Sequence to fold (50 residues):
Amino acid sequence: MAKKTVATLQKGAGKGFAKVVKMVKSPKTGAYSFQEEIVPNEEVNNFFKK
Fold:
């Protein structure tokens, strides 16, 4: 699935976007999960600051 998403982002109109993945720790259990989003290139830093 990820390969297909990244491949479509690299074609023409998707050059202004990036797929970002952040590890998030659950406050209840302490387990880690992954949060994935496709954001514009200008918003990448803001995504990781949240």
